[in-house]
Amino acid sequence: MDKKDLRIIYMGTPDFAVEALRRLVEGGYNVVAVVTMPAKPMGRHQNSLQASPVKEYALSKNLPVLQPEKLKDAEFIEKLKSYHADLQAVVAFRMLPEVVWAMPRLGTFNIHASLLPQYRGAAPINWAIINGESESGLTTFFLQHDIDTGDIIDQVRVPISDDCTFGELHDTLMSLSGDLAVKTVDSIINGTVKSTPQSTFATTDTPLRPAPKIFKETCRIDLSKSLDEVYNFVRGLSPAPGAWANLRSGNQNTVIKIYGAKKVVACHELPAGTIVCDGKKKLDIALKGGFLRLTELQLAGKKRMAASNFICGFKLCDNDMLI
Questions:
Q1: Separation between Cα atoms, residue 139 and residue 130, nearest integer Å
Q2: Which of 64, 79, 228, 270 sits at a 20 to 30 Å CA gap from 163?
Q3: Cα 292 to Cα 258: distance, rounded to the nearest angstrom
Q4: At 151, which helix (H) or strand (E)?
């Protein structure tokens, strides 16, 4: 079958999902429709709607766009059937009901931002860095009943450097997703696709680590953890959604988000969270095993700033600390 004859429905919402769609469309593949999340209210008064990045791209290419509130809605199901898709491709979208993922004759495949079966869930990039992994990647797999458990088609592996942030790994994987999408679709078109159960990849030596959705409270820094753990936590949440702690200054507490930091390994007997500042450029937080040297941060209600600017504009007292 020629790629122009294979009818593809693409499903995705955030910017991460645009690259694979772009490569398929601009590569001449027959994307007949796009499914994305409904527009979200934006602004202080929530009175304006913001289209998803996937929708914006789809409209720029004059592709039909479906935005169902509920994926089991009868009207949506009938509309989806009307496109007679041979294959569905899913990137960063919602969990699909069987009536949707089982619809195309060639199945539905997903691009997941981890080396499955590790990091099944909504936030695989964040959790890989938070857990100090040295490697991540992308996986394509066929959807089945349980989320992120289908048979693996292909994988791309990517090293994670010691200073890599969520944003950097996100962009690296996003740029690679287009190649993987094209390679996966080509193998399906050519009939050379081979899928392998995830149980083949799992080992008893390495327990499976999940990647659950991240909430505000998830992002609070646990100052009882070691320097390495807190450092990984900060970079795994930078630049979004941002690791935070409370800054106790005098009799007031204010939320401080930390976007950039370095490790300073040292021996000390200071309580965890103690702030050590030279009044110029160095803003260190005492932790087990050394100090977290802040380089970029944000106070509640303020803009992000370099630590040196914070030192110049915020009067720290002797007993101030993170809690």
A1: 20
A2: 270
A3: 10
A4: none
Give this prediction's pTM: 0.95
132: amino acid identity, one letter = G
- Please answer whether residues 275 and 306 qualify as being in contact, where contact means their C-beta atoms are separated by less than 8 angstroms: no
**Alpha-carbon distance values, 151 to 197, 199, 286, 289 (Å):** 4, 9, 46, 42
Residue type for position 236: G
DSSP 179: H
pLDDT at 42: 66
Q: Are strands 108-112 and 135-142 parallel, antiparallel or unpaired?
A: antiparallel
Structure tokens at 75: 């009207």
- Going through 82-174 in order, the beta strands assigned E by DSSP cover 87-91, 108-112, 135-142, 152-159
Q: What is the pLDDT of residue 317?
A: 79
Question: What's the confidence (pLDDT) of residue 205?
Answer: 78
Joined tokens for residue 226:
């070691």
End-to-end Cα distance, the chain: 61
Q: Tokens in use for 308?
A: 């040196």
